[in-house]
Specification:
binds 7-thionicotinamide-adenine-dinucleotide phosphate, six-stranded mixed sheet, alpha/beta, Aldehyde Dehydrogenase, Chain A, domain 2, 24 strands, Aldehyde Dehydrogenase, Chain A, domain 1
Length: 517
């Protein structure tokens, strides 16, 4: 990082070195809370992508990381986690300045949780990649083992909403399994990942080419990466539309692919839920990070018996949430990430009104002190029908749709009436009933009396249009490995014996039969 007029300037990280884009092109990023410049980044070209892929390919093929003993890989990943931890405050500040998430959240959640998750991936690396298999054929002296081997060069494309956490979820399991990676952060929010790359670079813990980072447009850098013959696997988090396109390109080239895409997660409040807990839970589910989370609980399903009181209490609480400077620790909600994102959310609020929903609170933030940022008030619509577009499409902003239901069976039908299936939550004092509802919902994660809590040891990913594959948990490591079965004949003579004792006599018999015909 160099400093230009007190703004950090970052290059591309390729083969263990920092360099400018081959075209010299750069991009200035602005703080979404107030429009001040935050950093300058490089805009990689197709030639830069080729350079990064060649470096990653070389590092993988020469075994500089893939052949390192798994326990040593674990030690190095954990050492990187320790170094990142020393920079927690700085990383949290960058995350807030660049993406607009509150400092309260970035310093207590995004960065520490990301570092904890990296430690978990270190722990996964420590597990032996060989698993002995039980004898499954006839009882002869052979051993069978299943090995997990790294896939190769992984292109990892991440979104703007949780830049540090998403970078860790991508590089952690890939490196743990012994792959070489090229990380492409979102153009809007690459700063914490770039700083992480600097910390990794200064540590000299990874051989050159094992970890590369490219900034630049998805339409150039991303497009070239996903079709590149030197790339073996693509891991993507972002919109369903781009995910669909990546899956199609990966399919044509038979590349491994994992996709973590959008959501429209239901929050199902059952009739006997504790109202105080569920009201707070619904607010947290919908409005954390101003609703810019793929797993956000954006459809609130309320029974007739609770609906009116629940909504009144929720609106009263939401109107007290403090919108403002995300660097201030008393702020509850920061701005949206960009003017374009704010415009898109504003359009959905207008659409909700056109579709006949009732706006109970929210909309544009009118305060003059917020005018230079992309602020939208937490917005609640009631009288929403699940068929409305605001109930079906991912808005990715602080907009909650409240949907009334009559029976629990109807609530389950509504919960599942979506093209998405990433997450859901169920709120009840009756844990047995909550479990039954959780099993009936078609989604990758269902929380009971909770929402958003991401456990590194549990798989995370979606059903239906919410994606393919899982991140986190042991499944994360599996997604970055090929499986190999090695069978060893311990007698070293079985093949000969089978030929002599089984196959050859059968052939002899059939020849004899033929001769006698
Ligand atoms: P996307 O357009 O999907 O971008 C995500 C990542 O993919 C970015 O790094 C982007 O690069 C890159 N990308 C874009 N086009 C690509 C292509 N043709 N080939 C390869 N990579 C490509 O998401 P967005 O524009 O950031 O947000 C749009 C909508 O996606 C949001 O409104 C929201 O609904 C949804 N979204 C979902 C999630 C999750 S976690 N599911 C996260 C963020 C956004 P650039 O940044 O350079 O364009």
């Amino acid at each position: 990082m160099t400093q230009t007029e007190s703004i950090p300037t970052f290059g591309l990280y390729i083969n263990g070195e920092w360099s400018a884009a081959s075209s010299g092109a750069t991009e200035t990023l602005y703080n979404p809370a107030n429009g001040t410049p935050v950093a300058v980044t490089a805009r990689a070209t197709v030639a830069d992508v080729d350079r990064a892929v060649a470096a990653a390919r070389h590092s993988f093929d020469n075994g500089s990381w893939s052949d390192v003993r798994h326990t040593e890989r674990a030690r190095i990943i954990e050492a990187i986690a320790d170094l990142l931890e020393e920079h927690t405050d700085e990383l949290a500040e960058l995350e807030t300045l660049n993406g607009g998430t509150t400092l309260r959240k970035s310093s207590w959640l995004d960065i520490p949780v990301g570092i904890e998750h990296l430690r978990y991936f270190g722990e996964l690396a420590r597990q032996h990649p060989m698993r002995p298999l039980p004898f499954i054929d006839f009882p002869m002296a052979s051993s069978n083992a299943m090995w997990r081997e790294p896939i190769g060069v992984c292109a990892q494309i991440i979104p703007w909403n949780y830049p540090f956490l998403m970078a860790i979820w991508k590089i952690g399991p890939a490196l743990a399994a012994g792959n070489s990676v090229i990380l492409k952060p979102a153009s809007l929010t690459p700063v914490s990942a770039l700083r992480m790359a600097e910390i990794i670079h200064e540590s000299k813990l990874l051989p050159p080419g094992v970890f590369n980072l490219l900034t630049g447009a998805g339409s150039t850098v991303g497009e070239h990466l996903i079709a590149h013959p030197g790339v073996d696997k693509i891991a993507f988090t972002g919109s369903t539309d781009v995910g669909r396109h990546i899956a199609a390109v990966a399919g044509r080239n038979l590349k491994r692919v994992t996709l973590e895409l959008g959501g429209k997660s239901p929050v199902v409040v059952l009739p006997n839920a504790d109202l105080d807990i569920a009201v707070d839970g619904a607010i947290w589910a919908a409005f954390m990070h101003s609703g810019q989370s793929c797993e956000a609980g954006t459809r609130l399903l309320l029974p007739d018996s609770l609906h009116d009181e629940f909504v009144d209490r929720m609106v009263a609480r939401v109107e007290q949430l403090v919108l403002g400077d995300p660097m201030d620790l008393t702020t509850d909600l920061g701005p949206l990430v960009s003017a374009a994102q704010k415009r898109a959310v504003d359009q959905y609020i207008l659409l909700g009104l056109e579709e006949g929903a009732t706006l109970r609170c929210g909309g544009n933030a009118e305060e003059p002190e917020l005018a230079s940022g992309h602020f939208v008030r937490p917005t609640i619509f009631t009288d929403v029908n699940n068929k409305m577009r605001i109930a079906q499409e991912e808005i990715f902003g602080p907009v909650l749709c409240v949907i009334r239901y009559h029976t629990v069976g109807e609530a389950i039908t509504i919960a599942n009436d979506t093209s998405y299936g990433l997450a859901a939550s169920v709120w009840s004092r009756d844990l047995n009933e909550a479990q039954e509802v959780a099993h009936a919902i078609r989604a990758g994660t269902v929380w009971i009396n909770d929402h958003h809590l991401i456990n590194a040891k549990a798989p995370f990913g979606g059903y239906k249009d919410s994606g393919i594959g899982r991140e986190l948990g042991p499944q994360a490591l599996e997604a970055y490995t090929e499986v190999k079965h090695i069978h060893t004949d311990l007698t070293q003579e079985r093949t000969r014996r089978i030929w002599v004792d089984v196959v050859a006599p059968q052939l002899d018999a059939s020849f004899t039969e033929m001769a006698e015909m």
